[in-house]
Design a protein that fits this description.
Elements: E1 35-38, E2 50-57, E3 62-70, E4 78-81, E5 83-84, E6 89-94, E7 101-111, E8 116-119, E9 128-132, E10 138-141, E11 149-150, E12 161-168, E13 172-180, E14 185-194, E15 197-204, E16 211-219, E17 222-230
Antiparallel strand pairs: 1-2, 2-6, 3-4, 3-7, 5-6, 7-8, 7-9, 10-15, 11-12, 12-15, 13-14, 13-16, 16-17
């Protein structure tokens, strides 16, 4: 402050005497604070686990770090131990979720001196949340389905887009991939958990050459191939 000299005074011994704020000021602080830095997971369409990464630093060292997560805050949280990696970085994986789903979570760390801090500080009533959304291009109908099926794409032949439809009688991890005539994978259209129902996926072959292609649906023990023709 121009024109002023500022001196710090240790008021710990007199703070209990109270007084006006301009007379006695006590700093807000803690012994051996635990610092947590974390970039929140954003809404996404990932089909696998969701990685939580946090930078955790404390003078006495980190005794433990955990991620608490849930899809229903009224039902309570599940905990996952975080694993130390490079430097002071810790990671943990929230299990894959069936879209659409909202996930609530927070990070908690305990120092070797016994101090525990959460991110956000108001956890568990406060939390970080993100949505797991279906991949773009997939439409669904949850009406009752009694059997697996893979439909012929339409239109066929096509240029450059076509739709592939299929049905699931129960929740499964689903894979739908496209291959060329040599068996090389050229596109992964679906690779995620899906509930029972009817689904339709768009396939854009604008970057592929004319010719025959095959698509394969795999859901649990069910597997089926069909062929289609791209004409440009």
């Amino acid at each position: 402050m121009p024109g002023y000299k500022v001196y710090g005074i240790d008021c710990n011994s007199i703070i209990t005497s109270l007084g006006a704020i301009h007379c006695i000021t006590k700093e807000i602080g803690v012994n051996e604070p635990v610092f947590i830095s974390h970039s929140a997971i954003r809404d996404n369409s990932l089909t696998g686990v969701q990685q939580v990464k946090a930078y955790i630093k404390t003078k006495s060292g980190v005794a433990s770090a955990k991620v608490y997560w849930t899809t229903d805050t009224l039902a309570g949280y599940s905990q996952i131990p975080m694993t130390p990696s490079a430097g002071d970085t810790f990671t943990a994986n929230i299990p894959a979720q069936i879209a659409p789903k909202t996930v609530y979570y927070y990070v908690s760390a305990t120092s070797n001196s016994g101090r525990t801090v959460a991110k956000p500080l108001t956890a568990p009533t406060g939390y970080i949340k993100f949505r797991v959304m279906p991949p773009v291009g997939i439409t669904s109908n949850t009406s009752e389905v009694t059997s697996y099926s893979l439909k012929q794409n339409y239109p066929n032949p096509f240029n450059p887009e076509t739709k592939i439809s299929y049905t699931l009688p129960q929740s499964e991890f689903v894979s739908l991939k496209v291959y060329d005539v040599n068996g090389r994978e050229v596109s992964t259209l679906v690779n995620l958990y899906q509930t029972s129902g009817s689904y339709s996926v768009s396939f854009d072959a604008s970057k592929l050459s004319s010719g025959a292609y095959f698509y394969r649906l795999q859901a649990g023990s069910y597997s089926e191939f069909k062929s289609m023709v791209l004409i440009k």
